[in-house]
Amino acid sequence: MTTKIGVTGYNGLLGSYLVKQLRNSQYSVTELEYENILNNSSYEVLQELDVVIHCAALTNVDRCELHQDDSYRANVKLTKCLIDQFKGRIIYISSTGVYGEYKNTPYTEGDEVKPTTIHHTHKLISEQEILKDPNNLVVRTGWLFDPGSDKGFISAIKKEVLNKDVITSSIYQVGNPTSVSTLVDCLEFCLNKNIIGTINCVNQGVATRYDYVKRIVDLISDGKIVKPSPKANFVRPAPVSSNESAVNYRLETEFGYYTRHWFDALSTLMSRN
């Protein structure tokens, strides 16, 4: 029997890729409307599904800090409304940013969570709601990229390359650049293995924002300069952790599942687009 999967956030960087790949893999996919879930009019549609992959969120961390009601609505209320209407299995996409600021080495799933921003606090509240059902799964991921999309980080860097002589980026924040294709492959694996609880899913390797930006710029331009930004120039409304890096401890030790290094994944995917 074909598994019937609903996807929230289907227009986003992750959701649009996920819908396409799931359909290519012969799953039955339903695109779930954000507002219909919030106004409780998705009940009948949801009852036809086996699994919902919940990608929808307000991901602009600074906007969440400045507009906390908007963040709560998109990142907590939406999740609670989904849970109220759907009693099947939910896979929730979260962020390694929920771990917080207290380590200078990559986080594992067993580490405490001490989020430093409103966005990540709201993501954590949603995680806790999702995990009240032991059949559900939370997937914490890193800095997502898709070179083939006109959304997201790489698209923004391409615009900077066109409009600026010199690009600056922070050497004070580290994380895991993670391809959307890596995450989607992992989600399919989790579906097939019926993995529950909490996992990290990131590409291997830790990078500074500067490392990440410089590699993108090197791949799309001929000698465009990237410089480290002084810390004073990198003040943001949201007190984002300087360390959002993680390792896929559960995927590797429990399931023997390994992802590619971010540098290799980025270089390969950029060469195709």
Descriptive account of the structure:
The chain has 273 residues and is of the alpha/beta class. The protein has one domain (4-151, 177-205, 243-261): NAD(P)-binding Rossmann-like Domain (Rossmann fold, 3-Layer(aba) Sandwich), CATH 3.40.50.720. Helix content is 42%, strand content 19%. It has helices at residues 13-24, 34-38, 43-47, 61-66, 68-85, 118-130, 152-163, 180-193, 209-220, 249-255, 262-271; strands at residues 4-8, 28-32, 51-54, 89-95, 137-141, 143-145, 166-170, 174-175, 177-179, 197-201, 207-208, 225-229. The strands form 4 sheets. A 6-stranded parallel sheet has the order 2-1-3-4-5-10, sandwiched between helices. It has a two-stranded parallel ribbon with strand order 6-9. Strand 4, helix 6 (118-130) and strand 5 (137-141) form a beta-alpha-beta unit. It is globular, with a radius of gyration of 18 Å. The two termini are 36 Å apart. 43% of the residues are buried. The mean pLDDT is 95.
